[in-house]
Design a protein that fits this description.
homodimer, 93 residues, Cell Cycle, Chain A, three-stranded antiparallel sheet, 4 strands, Cell division topological specificity factor (chains A, B), identical protein binding (chains A, B), cell cycle (chains A, B)
Chain lengths: 93, 93
Amino acid sequence: MFGFSFKPRNKGKSAQTAKERLQILLAHERGGNGSSPDYLPMLQRDILEAIKKHVHVERDAVDIRMERDDELSSLEINIELPGGRTVQSSASS
Amino acid sequence: MFGFSFKPRNKGKSAQTAKERLQILLAHERGGNGSSPDYLPMLQRDILEAIKKHVHVERDAVDIRMERDDELSSLEINIELPGGRTVQSSASS
């Protein structure tokens, strides 16, 4: 469904300034099945909950874009991670 | 992170034979943070569980590919859906 290529965006920047990021893309191709429910809004909530189980995510660090036409729904979630601190660790910045 | 374009693969085929599909792509760009845990294996399990809450998925209908280099881990999950039957519905084919 997606044609995609991996392009780490900050190849040029030095490692220290490079941000840690998580990107999730979902596409639901309904294949002419008009009656099929739109799963993406439900999955969006579940996926964000799953991520928050493993890493602390600031509210304003999450960018969500959703698009839909008659055959294809897509959801893009971009999350800037706080340099890899996981929920359990008590390390403060 | 991803450069991507949406290309519904079966544009030419008639709607009846077009399959219903769900595609999930995850990318974790560690931004030079070598100590950051690899979230993708954990997220893979949680995302599949989230999907199975909403739609019946046959074991052999799931294709998973994972790649990792020093800066970027990526996970691709392709799922062929059984024409939109949700877990609750008792409609049999």
